[in-house]
Amino acid sequence: MAKKRLQNDLSQQESDVSEQRSGRLPRMLRWINRHRAGVLVLAVGFSMLVLVVFISYSRAESVRDWVTQMNVFSTSSGSRGGGNGLQGINYRSDGTVELGEYSVSVFDGASGSTLRTDFRLEGRTVCENKKAFDDFMRGNHRFFREQVNVTLRNCEPSELADPDLPLLERKLVSRINRSLGRPFLTSVEIQGYALLESVEREEFIERTPPADR
Q1: Quick one: 28 and 74 in the same domain?
Q2: Beta-carbon count within 10 A of 74 CB
Q3: Following CA atoms 71, 198, 160, 70 in sequence, which dihedral angle do they give, to the nearest 10 degrees?
Q4: Are 97 and 81 spatial neighbours (Cβ–Cβ below 8 Å)?
Q5: CA angle 131-135-141, nearest 5°?
Q6: What is the H or E stretch that residue 81 is in?
Q7: Integer Cα distance of 39 and 33 in angstroms
Q8: pLDDT single digits (tens) 45-73
Q9: From CA 139, how far away is CA 75, in angstroms rounded?
Q10: How far is CA 182 from the centre of its chain?
Q11: CB 210 within 8 A of CB 194
Q12: What span, in angstroms and rounded, lies between the C-alpha atoms of 198 and 108?
């Protein structure tokens, strides 16, 4: 008889647990439905937090090799960098610097064509030595390139077709220093400037020969 009573007790406990489990889900659904607005706010807030953390992390120097995918970060043996891991970036012994190669496209609405400028950028900076220059460019390389690109894209097509290179160089120095919030460039020189044109997405054709100075 004691054995039968124990079995009945166990069966009753299992039944109680099963009822608790079956009732837990509807109660949770009712609670979510009752606090729908709060749950939505929490979900949106959490999503925004994840997005902010992701953006902050993507800008961190530790993932520089991820955010600079546009052929600006290279550790290959064929890189033209000066031992800093940045392609085309080099501090020369005379204090001048190589600031990379650029190819910037601008759409000309008047003619329906796309103009592309190819050039190299060199110059002088306020950095006293190679280490200071390399450290600065490692942390600001992508931003630096963006400012160069924006400066060219803000030019009128006529300015690119018949460029006043000294004026364009002054614009670059002014915009980059202003965007950085501190002096960095003292002067720049545009080397190997070439203008190419594509009409209706056809292959680019060179309009002006490269101009070295």
Answers
A1: no
A2: 16
A3: -10
A4: no
A5: 130
A6: none
A7: 9
A8: 777 776 654 554 444 333 333 333 333 33
A9: 16
A10: 21
A11: yes
A12: 10
User: Of 146, 142, 131, nearest to 83 (Cα)?
Assistant: 131
Q: Kindly give the interhelix angle for 2-34 and 36-58, rounded to the nearest 10 degrees.
A: 80
Which two three-digit tokens encode residue 202? 């056809």
> 209: which 2 tokens?
């020969």
Q: How many CB atoms lie within 10 A of CB 89?
A: 24
**How many structural domains comprise the chain?**
2
The Cα 42–Cα 52 span in angstroms is 15
Number of neighbours of residue 172 by Cβ within 10 angstroms: 22
C-beta separation of 87 from 100 below 8 A: yes
Q: How far apart are the first and last CA of the chain?
A: 108
Q: Which residue has the tokens 């960095």?
A: 184
Same domain, yes or no: 75 and 173: yes
Q: What is the pLDDT of residues 164-178, one digit of tens each?
A: 999 999 999 999 999
36 and 107 both lie in a single domain: no
Tell me which residue range forms the domain holding 12. 2-61
pLDDT cut 90: percent of the chain above it: 38
Written as one string, the DSSP assignment of 74-141 is --STT--S-SSSBTTEEE-TTSEEEEEEEEEEEEETTTTEEEEEEEEEEEEES--SHHHHHHHHHHHH
Nearest to 69 by CA among 153, 145, 176: 145
